[in-house]
Amino acid sequence: MKRILSTLLLVTITAATARSGEPKDFTVVIKEIADLMQETNKTGKPQRLAVVTFIPTKAADADKKNEFGEYITESLISAVGAKKNLFKLFERKRLDAVLKENDFMLSDLVDQNQAQKVGELLPIDILFSGTYTRLKNYIDVNSRLIDVVTGEILMSFSGRIKMTDDLLSLFPEENQTAVTAKANTESELDRCKQRAKALKTKLNDLSSDDKVQNLVGDAVKIPFDMQCGVVHFDILYSFKRYKIENTSYDQFLMKTLDTIAYPVNDDRAYEIFRYFGRDSLIDNSEWKLGLKTLKKIGNYRLAHHIKYLLQAEPIEPNLDKVCGRMDEFLELVRSNQVGLPTPVDFSTGFFQMADGVKSDKDQRLRIYLYENYSRYVTPGKDTPKKIYGMLTSMYKNETDGSRKTKILDWVAEWINQSESNDKNADQTYDFVRSFLPTTNKETNKRIAIEFPQKDLERLVGLCKDKLSEYALMTPYNSQKEDRINFCVDYDVPVPGAIPTMQEAQAILDGDDWEEQQRILKLLERMKDRPKPLETSLIKIMDKKNLEHKDDLKKMQPSVLAILGNIRSSNPKAIDHMIASLMSFDYYYSDNAKAALVQIGKPAVKPLIAKLQATTIHDGGLQYIIVEILGRIGKDAKEAVPVLQAMLQKTTNKDVRYALEAALQSMQ
């Protein structure tokens, strides 16, 4: 029985095992490993995967910089990371921190028992580790995938990678001076660190050109590596802070940058790029070397480096030059000459460029990019979202009016061409809401600058059909109501939700009380557009119905507001408003007051007549009418004699104050 189980286990392992043979291209080997890993996942859901850095098998190489190990590890992560339905990658920095904290050696992690211990510390399902051996014409690679719960080896791989000049550059020089075995002899590294320490002291005094040159003379003798050469980071910081220029040191940095084979994870490359931009000038030699370095960078790190090469200089006098450099880079991307371990596709290069030249104000570089290169972006799952995010960000941050309009037209074009679905509907109305004022005055000042009202009106005009279609494309009633209200405010027709005047007429003259209430709320937002419905509206004010008394209490205040919006001069409408002034329901009284003020002059005579009919016992009504006449202002001048006469007679202090204020407003 044991022999049968052993045989079955052997078959299982062999099924996910690749054997070494003839050396193959680097990309072929990476694909083979990724494909084998893919075959192991039979769970139907993403497995949590941690990838450990490949390590050399030779003990003598253990203390050297592991550039090839980093390179092949990142390459594999890129290949496996694309299979998001199969693997969920655990962040390498967190993995390295946990391993270091718990004293794990990378060489330990090939062992199943050690892999299980790691599984107890991290939220992962599987652990991938590998080793490599550099030979003359090829590199032997061995790796395995281990289940951290059971310790089972799910996959093992043994292969050979052809040696190329690029791969050769990732290995330390063979003739590097060995560390002496004598305990009493100071190592080269220790001597280097001593020189670096002395050099750091000199950074405390940079008061003259001679002192700077003396420091540089010593600095260029120390290689800019990640051991004793880290002092160069301090020099870069000091030179940037104190605006120190030194040609010799610039040349040293350029030579260093040219030797960095894999800059994507190398802080030296990034800091040298930042240093290039310190003087707001990227000369041709810096650009050419920077472009050469960009060719060796892939994924999301491109944008970080592009920023310091293309955004260092002020745009105004250098726009044509910077745009030309953008062209150089993007043409290299189009010809598959940018990116390691594999060339980046054009869409990635485009969006990395967009992030790299992003600005809080002037958007001319991104405008140039979008105008000239967006047509080459390959449609993908996330492409619409990225394009939309890019355009709306450009619009928000642009300060020039004509350029802002140009970008807005692109946004409108995107909205009109996009697929009609809930997601795009949400995005469109989210953008529209950016233009709407809030209750915060300071926020509204910012909105007026970033999202001017005239642009919203232009956007609505360009996208009226999509806004209409998207208004009802949401499962949430509150969201639907907000969108319909917006469409009412900006005269966007929504069939079935916002009635035409003819449809509203039929509803108001009908007997569907609930639908009448809904329509009246919409008409209330339409300003003077419901003018043709004046007669039907007045009929609602005339209604008395015991069964629907509560419905009328909800409808009639809306009618008063609408009659005010259309500035009805109908005597019957005005009489209803005056009759509502002393209502205990503040919806009636408030809307009636506002409507009479809106109507203005046609309401003055009826208001005077009502005021003259009051007695000393009607102080409250007198105050309200006088207040309304005062708010009407000069159009209520014919009320002056009546108000003056009342001022002579009344003893009510509140009414007297209102009379004096009204008379002043009519002067």
Rg calculated over all Cα atoms: 38 Å
Number of strands: 7
* CATH architecture verdict of one domain: 3-Layer(aba) Sandwich
Instruction: Output the structural class.
Output: alpha/beta
Q: What percentage of residues falls in helices of 4 or more residues?
A: 55-70%
Q: Mind telling me the CATH class of one domain? A: Alpha Beta
* Alpha plus pi helix count: 33
CATH structural fold name of one domain = Rossmann fold
User: Poorly predicted ranges (pLDDT <50, ≥5 residues)?
Assistant: 1-15, 174-185
Shape: elongated
| Relative strand content | 5-15%
The end-to-end span amounts to: 112 Å
The whole-number mean of residue pLDDT values reads 89
Q: Biggest sheet, open or closed, and with what strands and sense?
A: 7 strands, mixed
Question: CATH-wise, what's the superfamily of one domain?
Answer: ABC-type transport auxiliary lipoprotein component
Explain the overall architecture.
It is a single chain. The protein is α/β, with parallel strands linked by helices. Among the domains are: 2-168, 3-Layer(aba) Sandwich (Rossmann fold), CATH 3.40.50.10610; 379-475, no CATH class; 600-667, no CATH class. The chain contains 33 helices and seven strands. The chain has helices at 2-15, 26-40, 67-81, 92-101, 112-121, 165-168, 188-202, 209-219, 231-241, 247-259, 267-276, 284-294, 301-310, 315-334, 346-356, 364-373, 383-397, 401-417, 422-433, 441-450, 453-462, 464-470, 477-489, 501-508, 513-524, 534-542, 549-565, 571-579, 586-599, 604-612, 619-632, 640-649, 653-665, and strands spanning 17-18, 47-51, 55-56, 87-89, 126-134, 138-147, 153-162. Strands 1, 2, 3, 4, 5, 6 and 7 form a seven-stranded mixed β-sheet that branches. Helix 9 (231-241) packs parallel to helix 11 (267-276) and helix 17 runs antiparallel to helix 18 (401-417). The protein is elongated.
